[in-house]
Amino acid sequence: MNNAVLVLTGAVSVLAPCVADAQPQHAYPANGQSPSQQQRDESQCATWATQQSGYDPARPPPTAVAQPAPVTGSGARVRGAAVGAAVGGIAGNDVGDAALRGAAVGGVTRRVRNRRAANEQNQANAQYAQNAQASWAGARGACLKGRGYTVD
């Protein structure tokens, strides 16, 4: 499986809960409000919810998908080569081959760490978006209930 498929698969699994939780709220007039009054109230409550929560569903925060940082520096490879050479020297093996294997392991280790960090950032982004949306929906619902609506 190539890296693009892995990243896309990870992004879908991280962002899917946000899409699934994006259920619309419905308000039902409990005090005989007219359709035009309900429209005004819903608009005003949506504005108030945006002010209270800092979240605007018309302009949701970008859900940037963090990509794993490429292994461009040689630091991880150099450390891996040094460890490989040391172990190869102690074990009496070919130091050059051990250094090459150590460099490869160092590069793989760095890629794994970079991928893990990108996944953690994606999960944090998704959690932030979900919490902001829930905060907005709660504020809007409270406002509408205060104006005499039943909200589901």
Highlighted features:
152 residues; mainly alpha; two-stranded antiparallel ribbon; 70% helix; rod-shaped
Spatial strand arrangement across the major sheet? 1-2
Q: What fraction, in percent, of the residue positions are helical?
A: 55-70%
Q: Structural class given helices, strands, pairing? A: mainly alpha
Helix-strand string: HEHHHE
Short structural description:
With 152 residues, this protein is mainly alpha-helical. It has helices spanning 3-20, 35-53, 75-91, 95-146, and strands spanning 27-29, 149-151. The chain is built from 4 helices and 2 strands; from the N terminus they run H-E-H-H-H-E.
Word description of this protein:
This protein has 152 residues and is mainly alpha-helical. The protein has a domain at 73-152. The protein has four helices and two strands. It has helices at 3-20, 35-53, 75-91, 95-146, and strands spanning 27-29, 149-151. The protein has a two-stranded antiparallel sheet. Helix 2 (35-53) crosses helix 4 (95-146) and helix 3 (75-91) packs across helix 4. The longest helix is centred in the C-terminal third of the chain and has 52 residues, at 95-146. The chain is rod-shaped, with a radius of gyration of 26 Å. The two termini are 43 Å apart.
Helix and strand topology:
Elements: H1 3-20, E1 27-29, H2 35-53, H3 75-91, H4 95-146, E2 149-151
Antiparallel strand pairs: 1-2
